[in-house]
Structures are given as C-alpha cells and as structure tokens.
C-alpha cells in the first residue's frame, strides 16, 4: 500500500496569522512529504508493505516506526486544525471539566505539557479504554497508540513546527495552535 500526502481541508494560507502559508508549505508540504516518501521506500518488499498506517505505528520499530509515526502524527495534527474554530461542543467540555476540573484548567495543563516538553516531540489529549482522559507527552516520533491510548488531539512541538513563524517562542505557537483546533473533530473522537 502506497501512503500518500493527504489533502488539507483548508487553503495553505487559511490558518494565518496563527500558522503562515510558509509554515504550511514547509511543515506540511516538505517535512510530512519526506516522512511519507521515506516510509514508502522503507516498507517496500517488507511485511509492512500492505499494512495500514495505524498497523505500522503499532507494530514497527526503528526507522520504519519513526517515519510511520511521524506520518501519522503530522497527518492527525494538520487534520485537527481549522481556520473556523467553533465553540467547544458541550460533550467535550463536560468530559474535560470532569477530567481536569474545567476547560480552562485543561488548556492550562495542556499548554504546560506542550511548552515543557524537553526537546522534540508531541503533546496529546488521549482517552484510555475506560474512557479516562489524560494529557501525554511523547518524545520524537512517539505516539500514544503504542501504549493503548486513543489520541484525541495533538500539538507538534518539534522546532520545525514553529520556527518560521515564532522562532524560539514555543508558548506563543502553542497558544496559536489551541486557537486553531477543530473542537468538533476532537469531540467526535471521544468514545
């Protein structure tokens, strides 16, 4: 199975000023495409050649895992963004309040996780098999599916995600990302 760059549901400049066209062109168009190209090359002629991306992330290791997980993580990230953020659905707001005390506390804790991650990686909102929500940090290409968690949303905190628009101001980038999250999609991923 050949993995392909997914089409974005918005124009390359639609997320500006939170995320510029240049960032989309480099981060989505070049970084993500490179992970996809590497993955396709690495799985050719292997048992992973006909596997879904989810399967590869759950079963692979080494370079195959790194490129598959980065493909999965980036695709998930970009498809969770929207230029037209609607109010958070009540179902999601209630679940976040139950888990974190309030939506505001969730946003604060998520921001701390994203800004406080040392080095490169991802901050995630996840749900476990019992429906419990948690905030998880993963280093490098880490993905919560490998720990049996269901990803609900993520923010990429590799420097390439924000350096064009924000230089070294990760906190400003995380704040901008949270204003671009499609909360309807996040809510739709809840069990």
Features:
3 strands; minor pseudopilin epsh fold; 191 residues; Helix Hairpins; single chain; 2 domains; mainly alpha; three-stranded antiparallel sheet
Overall tally of domains: 2
Compute the gyration radius: what is it?
Answer: 16 Å
The CATH C-level class name of the largest domain: Alpha Beta
| Low-confidence region ranges | none
CATH superfamily of the largest domain: Iron/manganese superoxide dismutase, C-terminal domain
Please work out how many helical segments DSSP would assign.
8
CATH topology of the largest domain: minor pseudopilin epsh fold
Order of strands in the sheet with the most strands?
A: 2-1-3
Query: What are the secondary-structure elements, in order, as H or E?
Result: HHHHHEEEHHH
**CATH arch. level architecture of the largest domain:** 3-Layer(bab) Sandwich
Major β-sheet, in short?
3 strands, antiparallel
Separation of termini? 29 Å
Strand tally, please?
A: 3
Strand content: 5-15%
Helix content: 40-55%
What is the structural class?
mainly alpha
